[in-house]
Amino acid sequence: MKKILISTTMLAFAASNAAVAQMTAVGDGEGELSIVAWPGYIERGETDKAFDWVTKFEEATGCKVSIKTANTSDEMVALMNEGGFDLVTASGDASLRLVAGGRVQAVNTDLIPSWSKVDERLQNAPWYTVDGTHYGVPYQWGPNVLMYNTKVFPEAPKSWSVVFEEQTLPDGQSNKGRVQAYDGPIHIADAAQYLMAHKPELGITSPYELNEDQYKAALDLLRQQRELVGRYWHDAFIQIDDFKNEGVVASGSWPFQVGLLAGEGQPVASTIPEEGATGWADTTMLAADAKHPNCAYKWMEHTLSSNLQSDLSVWFGSVPVTPASCTDGSGMQTAEGCTANGLDDFDKIRFWQTPVANCSQGEGACVPYYRWVSDYIGVIGGR
C-alpha cells in the first residue's frame, strides 16, 4: 500500500502526542467503557443470540460496555470531537484526521499480548501509523461491494456503470431512480476509481490523490450520478429497507447489508465489478482523554484474542485482522468463509484514506479532504 504523505506539522504533533500520552502499564478496569462503532460491529446477542462478543468480556473484566453507533466517518469524527468516548472503530478516511486533531492517543502495542497475531500487512498500515507510532489496533477490513437485486440482474453486473451512468437494466427498465450512492464525501473516491478504468487519460493513480483536473472529473461524474440516485444512503438499516420495499435494485454497499438481506431470503447478492473496489480497514483508536483507559486496553486485547474476530467476520461479511481466526476454531468462521469475504483480495482493494494536499503528485498538488466535504454536499444538493 502507498504511504500517505502528511505534513511535517502533523508528524511533529503526533510525535509529541505519543510522548505525552502513551500508557506504560494496564491496571484494573474502571468498570465502564464507551465505544463509537459502525453498526453491527459490537454485538451482545441482542440482534441475534448467536453473535455476542461483549457479555463474556464484561464478565471477565467488570468493564460495562456502552455503544454509540455512527453511520459515516464524518459522524465518528464529530462524536470524538465532542468527547466523552473511550474508543472508536475508525476507518482510514477518519483515522489520520483524529490523529491530527489530537482526538486520539498513541497505543502501546507492548501492552497488547495478542498484537503478534495481527496480519503483517496491517501492523504498520499508513492509515493509523504515523512515523512509526501506532494510533490504534486493527479491527476488521473488507471491500465496498456492489449490491444488486438478483431478479433484475440474473447475472452479476460486470461494471459499476449500473450506478454511475443511465442505462436500461436487464429487466427492460431504466436504472434512473432505482440506484443509490453513499452519503459520505469518501464516495468521491468511488467515482475516481471508476474514472481510472474508463478515462485513463486523466492519469489517476490513486482515488485518494486527485489533482484539480482529476477532482473536477470525479465531481462531474457524481453530478451525473445524482440524476439517477433515488436516495443517498448512510444508515445501513434504511438501505436494507429500501432494497426490500422501495424498489432499489443496485448500490454500493457493505457485506453487512448483503448478509442480512440474503439471510431473510431477499433476492440480493453482491459482486466486485471489473473496475475493482474501494474498501475499509478499520482501527480501534483510543481517545486522547479516555476516562477508562485500562478497560480500553483490555478491550483492544479482547478484540484480538477472543471469538470476536471470527464471529464478527461471519456477522459482518468482513475479514479478520488476525488471519488465524479463519481456521483456529475460536469462533464460527472458516477458511472458506474468509476467502469468500475477500481474504485474498487485499491487494485489489483501495482502502479508504484521508485525502491530503501533500500527496505523491507533489506538495500541495492534491485536493484535501475539507474540500471533498463541502463539494460533495454541493453535489447532493444539486450544485
Indicate the structural class.
alpha/beta
- Please give the alpha-carbon distance between the first and last residues: 34 Å
**Sequence of secondary-structure elements:** HEHEHEHEEEEEHEHHEHEHEEHHEHEH
Give the proportion of residues in helices. Answer: 25-40%
Q: How many strands?
A: 15
Shape: globular
Rounded to an integer, what's the Rg over CA atoms? 20 Å
Helical segment tally?
Answer: 13
Share in β-strands: 15-25%
Largest sheet: 8 strands, mixed
Walkthrough of the structure:
Helix content is 34%, strand content 17%. The protein is of the alpha/beta class and 383 residues long. α3 (73-82) packs parallel to α4 (92-100) and α6 (187-198) packs across α7. The radius of gyration is 20 Å and the shape is globular. The protein starts with 7 loop residues before the first helix and ends with a helix. Mean pLDDT is 93; it is low at 1-20.
Summarize, please.
34% of the residues lie in helices and 17% in strands. The protein has helices at 8-21, 55-61, 73-82, 92-100, 161-164, 187-198, 212-226, 236-245, 255-263, 293-305, 308-316, 335-341, 369-380; strands at 32-37, 64-69, 87-90, 104-105, 129-130, 133-134, 137-143, 145-149, 179-182, 229-233, 250-253, 268-271, 277-287, 319-320, 349-351. The model is unreliable at 1-20 (pLDDT under 50).
